[in-house]
């Protein structure tokens, strides 16, 4: 099937393990070149904006857009982002209406879509098809889900200072170990986040300096990613983590008129119309915040819902249903 073949072609870029198309890397560039060829083959009018976002407009483009991103996390999966772009091409070709977009660098803060909404012109409506990246649809036995809202998130770096010294000759009560202090801060954040309903906090990387096996760490840096479904809980996490709030991305509701169209298409196929909020960030959130009527269609994740991992999985049957719903929605919006 063409969709699977295209997902495999994107996945093969740069070699494994997993997908490694970091935003604005040579690998993400290569993915954009590949997709540009598919847009040309479809007969779409293709262009690229200053941020490198890729657009393909069908002859009757209308103002309705669909798409996602082509970058990945390190050692990511086959479906996150790529599925939304590949499926968008199928749906626009089938509907004979709409435009496809592949935004740049979604994973590290929706860089491409944020740049895009600064200059526009904005579409009349946007629908992003995406793998769910969680277990909820599989638990409910539903192939598709309709997204109602996207969590807010904030990311930052915490620096902890101490005093470097000799690991053998500095008594424990005379040390100022930056890594021991950082570890306490990380555990505290993890414990506090567990007490806030539906909140999550993650430390994804850490670096200790000078980094010698027999040297007390003098300085430690670590990343923090915190998320919550409302601003009050997000603010609480930002304060706990001690990170800068100025780059925080607020939670956003998706648009009820687009949700209704997607629900109608799902129900008319005798499928359960499960509505759910997204715990992952998406370009759709950026467009919705910019005032574009926006919806998202989730495809059930298999393999326990694992994502940001090479184990990420959806079935071709579910993907086919999602493309069918998306194509129909493009004609209704
Ligand atoms: C993007 O995929 C994110 O939510 O981290
Ligand atoms: Mn994604
Ligand atoms: Mn992702």
Rounded Rg: 22 Å
Percent helix: 25-40%
Number of strands: 15
Order of helices and strands: HHEEEHEHEHEEEHEEEEHEHEHEH
List the helices and strands and how they pair.
Layout: H1 2-12, H2 26-41, E1 45-48, E2 54-57, E3 64-69, H3 82-95, E4 99-103, H4 111-119, E5 125-131, H5 136-140, E6 144-150, E7 152-161, E8 165-166, H6 178-195, E9 200-202, E10 206-209, E11 215-216, E12 219-228, H7 231-241, E13 252-253, H8 256-267, E14 274-278, H9 283-289, E15 294-299, H10 316-332
Parallel strand pairs: 3-4, 3-5, 5-15, 6-14
Antiparallel strand pairs: 1-2, 2-4, 6-13, 6-15, 7-12, 8-11, 9-12, 10-12
Helix pairs in contact: 1-3, 3-10, 8-10
Bound molecules: glyoxylic acid and manganese (II) ion (2 copies).
The site of glyoxylic acid (GLV) has 3 residues, from loops.
Task: Describe it.
Strands 1, 2, 3, 4, 5, 6, 13, 14 and 15 form a nine-stranded mixed sheet that branches. Strands 7, 9, 10 and 12 form a four-stranded antiparallel sheet that branches. The protein is 36% helix and 23% strand. It has ten helices and 15 strands. By secondary structure, the chain is an alpha/beta fold. Helix 3 packs across helix 10. The structure holds glyoxylic acid and manganese (II) ion (MN) (2 copies). Glyoxylic acid (GLV) binds next to loops.
State the main characteristics.
333 residues, alpha/beta, nine-stranded mixed beta sheet, four-stranded antiparallel beta sheet, 10 helices, 15 strands, 36% helix, 23% strand, binds glyoxylic acid, binds manganese (II) ion
Brief account:
Helices cover 36% and strands 23% of the residues. It is built from ten helices and 15 strands.
